[in-house]
Amino acid sequence: MNLSKGYLLALVGIFAYLSLQLVLPFLQYVLGALLIAFILFPLQVRLENYVSPTVAAFALLVLAIVGFIVPFVVVATAIAGDVARLLQGIDPEALQLAEIERLIAEETGREVDLAEQLTGSAEQIGTILLDQTTTWFSAATHALVGLGVMLFLLYYLLKDGTRLMGWIRTVTPLPDDVQNDLYSELSEVMWAVLAGHVLIALIQGVIAGFGLFATGIPNAAFWTFIMVILSLIPLVGAPLVWLPAVGYLLVIGEPLLALALAVYSTIVVGISDDYLRPIVVDRYAQISPAVIMLGVLGGIYGFGIMGLFFGPVIAGALIATVNVVDDNYDRLENESDTI
Question: Mean pLDDT, the chain, as a whole number?
Fold first, then answer.
């Protein structure tokens, strides 16, 4: 390597590092834009046969807002409402402070005013919350800015996606057929995770959630969300929620509702997994449940909430890349020798 090439590579490394620092504060939103752009890009390509790329990208941006962002906000609001009701459901009178004070006096010989202590603690908590107002405002501002970045990036990923892929192909030092194999493998992995696991988990969680709503389980929206998340993890799934729900119905004296929820969840939710997953996954790359579990759990630690989606994709992409290397390595090595 001569000095000029080394200098250029050093510049690439420096600017790549600085660019990464620009992306990291909004990593979740950038990953969200990439995810939605991947899902909508086939529609972008089809729409460009009838309208300009700008019009197609703007139409799909509106679709993304209506189909992805607004439902997410609605679900988040419903979940927040359930959490608030959970907290409000704590009855201070049920604590029986007077009885607790009497027992403490009998055991220790000291009189304690728990109400006063709780009031003092509440005042301290109020002071802390007031001090955190600036932090919350900053977080809300960051979320709004991040949402704007996501929408802006999504629009240009759709509008210039074809040109971007062409540029990537140009600068990638691989033959066209090898690039075709690589991108085809990566696309299959992405769709396998999205359609074969994320979509199935969403369907399972929602179907199980209908049972919670129908049987009157409190805060059903919150528990439905939990079941969707748990269904992303192989061998875990919705039973971790609906089985305790069945037990709750038995405890409160509703055996018929408990039986109905158990039968519904076992049969209907089980069928959705046993039949839908093979139908969907067989269309795309097969990914081991072990890879999915490692990707989901490790992805959450590495990438936050978006790691639920990108963790399995990254793990599957490694396997796909190794397969492409194994299929083409000898040929590429021979080509480099002839050059």
Answer: 77
Three-class SS state of 172:
coil
Helices (H), the chain: 3-23, 27-47, 53-64, 70-88, 97-108, 114-131, 133-159, 161-171, 176-193, 199-214, 220-231, 239-251, 255-264, 270-271, 277-281, 289-303, 307-338
- Kindly state the tokens that stand for 172: 């990638």
Which burial class, exposed, middle or buried, applies to 84 when counting CB atoms under 10 A from its CB (0-12, 13-18, 19+)? exposed
Say yes or no to pLDDT of 241 above 50: yes
User: Taking CA 293 as the corner, what is the angle to CA 287 and CA 295, rounded to the nearest 5 degrees?
Assistant: 80
Return all residues near 86 (Cβ < 8 A) that are at least 6 apart.
Answer: 219, 222
Q: Which of the four pLDDT bands, split at 50, 70 and 90, describes residue 155?
A: very high
Burial profile 132-164: b = 16 or more Cβ within 10 angstroms, e = fewer: eeeeeeeeeeeeeebbebbbebbbebbbebeee
What pLDDT score was predicted for residue 14?
Answer: 93
**Residue given tokens 């704007």 in the structure block:** 148
Sign of CA dihedral 168, 31, 207, 42: negative
Confidence of residue 92 (pLDDT cuts 50, 70, 90): very low
Q: Rounded to the nearest 10 degrees, what angle do helices 239-251 and 199-214 cross at?
A: 10
